[in-house]
Amino acid sequence: MFPLRDENPTFSTSFVTFLIIGLNVLAWVFIQGLGSHLPLAASVCSYGLIPGNLLGTVEPGTRVALGDGLACVLTGEGSYLSIVTSMFMHGGWFHIIGNMWFLSLFGDNVEDVMGKVRFALFYLLCGIAAAALQILTEPGSVLPMVGASGAISGVMGAYAVLFPKAPVHVLVFFGFFFTRIVVPAFLMLGYWFLIQLLGGIPALASAGGGVAFWAHVGGFLAGVVLAKLLCNPERSAACRARRGRTEQWMQRHRPD
After folding, report:
1. Rounded CA gap, 103 and 159, in Å?
2. In the chain, which end has fewer C-beta atoms inside a 10 angstrom radius, N or C?
3. Is-contact 181 148, C-beta < 8 A?
4. Residue 250 pLDDT
5. What does the pLDDT look like over 47-59, one tens digit per residue?
6. What separation, in Å, do the N-terminal and C-terminal C-alpha atoms of the chain show?
7. What's the burial of 183, exposed, middle or buried (CB within 10 Å: 0-12/13-18/19+)?
8. pLDDT digits (tens, 9 = 90+) for 218-238
9. Contacts 24+ apart (CB under 8 A), 193-197
10. Architecture of domain 2-252
11. What contacts 208, CB < 8 A, 6 or more positions away?
């Protein structure tokens, strides 16, 4: 399932969501050179999260091939700051576009009920939790981990808890055939989480690489736990009341 839009109005400007998207885009343009080989490789090596390097479990001088003759040379002395910087780096155009799409779709409503400060804290905590689980499952990995998907997974977990019945329009693919359907948020997001969990199990027995499934799992679970803790009760109640009035208005004015 690929989400297209939701039927879940917001009642305040999603400033932090827009800011996070802007920071990711700026990093992609000015640090990663819009995906050009040398800037992309340099940014992944310098700002990506490398578990083995962070924990000092790799030999200094270890080379990690990135393709096209490029490689990261590890020092064995990684910085914990890479847990945060890696959240703003991406590996390609589809990577950043997909992540920003999911953040824009689900982040605005979560920010709406948390407020700006709480949502910013929530986003960072989910990203840290995602990185922690990925490091725990692959402590010796030398492959750089980049992307906002761990933190965004937390946003999706919170959305599933806070708005389980919100209608989400999704594309469903069956080989070369696809169609659009509307499903409740808990079904679409629960299906997505199951895919991450099933994808992560084989990775436990392999050398890893590709998709950081356990980062997605860790972020999602953190979002589920933190959703109620950081939700602003007054904002949440106000949003529910306004959402109810909006739905009543739409039902009264819906064409027969």
Report:
1. 11
2. C
3. no
4. 46
5. 999 998 999 888 8
6. 30
7. middle
8. 999 999 999 988 887 776 666
9. 193/156, 193/157, 193/160, 193/217, 193/220, 196/153, 196/220
10. Up-down Bundle (1.20)
11. 138, 141, 143
